[in-house]
Amino acid sequence: GCLALGKAPVFAWCSGFLVGRTACHSRRPVPPTPPQSPAPFLRSSPLHFFSGSGTKQLPQAIIIGVKKGGTRALLEFLRVHPDVRAVGAEPHFFDRSYDKGLAWYRDLMPRTLDGQITMEKTPSYFVTREAPARISAMSKDTKLIVVVRDPVTRAISDYTQTLSKRPDIPTFESLTFKNRSTGLIDTSWSAIQIGIYAKHLEHWLRHFPIGQMLFVSGERLISDPAGELGRVQDFLGLKRIITDKHFYFNKTKGFPCLKKAEGSSKPHCLGKTKGRTHPEIAQEVVQRLREFYRPFNLKFYQMTGHDFGWD
Ligand SMILES: Nc1ncnc2c1ncn2[C@@H]1O[C@H](COP(=O)(O)OS(=O)(=O)O)[C@@H](OP(=O)(O)O)[C@H]1O
């Protein structure tokens, strides 16, 4: 993912100054983060005033998946909202760094003022067995967002990403099948496994009510970003500030882009690693995969009460 940094807290300093620290509610006690200690040359300069406003909070909402679903686009679009502050890089706390503890995790977060929501995205959480219990232990009120995409194109997208890093890997077809002639699919291949959404969701539903999860259509995030962002803002209890006026369709990129990026006045599309050209996959292989996913997709539609239209 990209390493964009958090918002400059410039717009918010006055309310932070007046309101003071945000209360930390319904969470396990974590020692408070001490105010930022500015570099010596900044002390007593006007910049000092700006640099330390707000406090770091554990995230109230997390984009937990899915890998290649459109998670970066969703987070970049949400950051346009003045009441959303997000970590740029993927923290991977609940899968890779859990032993570092919640204080470490919170220290990664940007400073926020009262009423602002702290967010992060790490798409691998959705398929991490320990993640639901761990996030629930942080706060059972955490709102969870999952960007889902047709599992077949998701698998091809995943493969395309690996291929871009390691051009010598076997073909998509040969990785898909355990046995090409019987058409037996290798469900242990992560590119296939991740797309069995219903199975992964079952684990989350042991720890969270379905109403605390929002499922965003990766396809609609491309065809109607403002519509999906409307649902997300409602879910997060935010005023609908991000609307169709914020987007334009960039024909060269082939994707919706922001007219103005967060903290800038210039148009902004996602980088080259988002929207890669996929290799051509034989139709029979795609068909076999569609068949494979169909029952899991139908189960997923049933569980979420939402037909994503992949079948
Ligand atoms: N607006 C916009 N611009 C560019 N790309 C967009 C956009 N909206 C969604 N997408 C789709 O996002 C896919 C990458 O998903 P993620 O960001 O979740 O990938 S990752 O898991 O963080 O690597 C990426 O997948 P690929 O097309 O396979 O590269 C895109 O299809």
UniProtKB/TrEMBL annotation:
<feature type="domain" description="Sulfotransferase">
    <location>
        <begin position="59"/>
        <end position="294"/>
    </location>
</feature>
<feature type="active site" description="For sulfotransferase activity">
    <location>
        <position position="68"/>
    </location>
</feature>
<keyword id="KW-0735">Signal-anchor</keyword>
<comment type="similarity">
    <text>Belongs to the sulfotransferase 1 family.</text>
</comment>
<dbReference type="GO" id="GO:0008467">
    <property type="term" value="F:[heparan sulfate]-glucosamine 3-sulfotransferase activity"/>
</dbReference>
<dbReference type="InterPro" id="IPR037359">
    <property type="entry name" value="NST/OST"/>
</dbReference>
<protein>
    <recommendedName>
        <fullName>Sulfotransferase</fullName>
        <ecNumber>2.8.2.-</ecNumber>
    </recommendedName>
</protein>
<keyword id="KW-1133">Transmembrane helix</keyword>
<feature type="binding site">
    <location>
        <position position="157"/>
    </location>
    <ligand>
        <name>3'-phosphoadenylyl sulfate</name>
    </ligand>
</feature>
<keyword id="KW-0472">Membrane</keyword>
<feature type="binding site">
    <location>
        <begin position="274"/>
        <end position="278"/>
    </location>
    <ligand>
        <name>3'-phosphoadenylyl sulfate</name>
    </ligand>
</feature>
<dbReference type="GO" id="GO:0000139">
    <property type="term" value="C:Golgi membrane"/>
</dbReference>
<dbReference type="InterPro" id="IPR000863">
    <property type="entry name" value="Sulfotransferase_dom"/>
</dbReference>
<feature type="binding site">
    <location>
        <position position="149"/>
    </location>
    <ligand>
        <name>3'-phosphoadenylyl sulfate</name>
    </ligand>
</feature>
<keyword id="KW-0325">Glycoprotein</keyword>
<dbReference type="Pfam" id="PF00685">
    <property type="entry name" value="Sulfotransfer_1"/>
</dbReference>
<keyword id="KW-0812">Transmembrane</keyword>
<dbReference type="InterPro" id="IPR027417">
    <property type="entry name" value="P-loop_NTPase"/>
</dbReference>
<feature type="disulfide bond">
    <location>
        <begin position="257"/>
        <end position="269"/>
    </location>
</feature>
<feature type="binding site">
    <location>
        <begin position="68"/>
        <end position="72"/>
    </location>
    <ligand>
        <name>3'-phosphoadenylyl sulfate</name>
    </ligand>
</feature>
<keyword id="KW-0808">Transferase</keyword>
<keyword id="KW-1015">Disulfide bond</keyword>
<keyword id="KW-0333">Golgi apparatus</keyword>
